[in-house]
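It is worth pausing here to work through a concrete case rather than discussing structure prediction in the abstract. The textbook approach is simple: state the sequence, then state the predicted structure, then interpret. We follow exactly that order.
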Amino acid sequence: MSAIAETEQRPALIQIDKVSKTYVRNKALTYAIEDISFAVPAGEVVAIVGPSGSGKSTLLNMIAGLLRPTSGVVRYSGAPVAAVNTKVGYMTQHDTLLPWRTALANVRVALEIQAVPRKDADERARKALADVGLEAFAKHYPTQLSGGMRKRVQLARTVVYNPQTLLMDEPFGALDAILRVNLQQDFLRLLATRAEPLTVVLVTHDLEEAVTMADQVIVLSGSPARVSHVERLRGIREAALSTGVVEARRSPEFGRYLNLLWNQLHLGRDLRGAGAPELREEATR
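Step two, the predicted structure:
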């Protein structure tokens, strides 16, 4: 898909316009992603799915300003991303909590970097912990918290400074199935109760997670990655919020979207360029 995928609902906050990224490996030029274009509307959740090594994390890193495209342009609020993007928060699969800090102090880190006065920072950090159900664990250290609680602390730390956009790279992938569903439910509630709409770009290998949480799913082909399909989802996230994630996944509409995207994902794998070498997982996952 070469044209930018716009939607009728909201203007694009993020635009990926004919972006390619190459790496040199064994003295040969290799494409991680090639001629990718899509848009992320303001206030929506857009999920990116694709085979391992298809450049999903590369795209997140370019939106964050941590990587530069080889060609094409990444725009945020209409301007090219030319430096670290301070409008975004980045939530990775690993929680990276500081073990010598309490949950409250871990959440407060981002505000300390912004030189927010200590009293205000503590109040905002406590509110963020309360939003994820951990107000009673503010004085606990990471080693005293379960995996799901640590992930909630990470989420609170990521949103405490009110980023306009949240980039999520397999955020719940390391958790067991029950914890993953619970955190998906908590995250949907958090999105629904925020005063300012949060734009989210979610990279995931879990198609059920993508269908549950996203307004739009972008399917990438195999390396070199291209956009092979864009699917707008209707009603699933609202159902998951009102009736619960598990109940929403029992609906025929959920099954229809899941089957459609599963087929598109396999079709995208078949579109892998002939003879294209596999890229390093840490560079392109």
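Step three, interpretation. The first strand starts at residue 12 and ends at 25. The beta strands are 12-25, 28-41, 45-49, 71-76, 79-80, 88-91, 165-169, 199-203, 216-220, 227-232.
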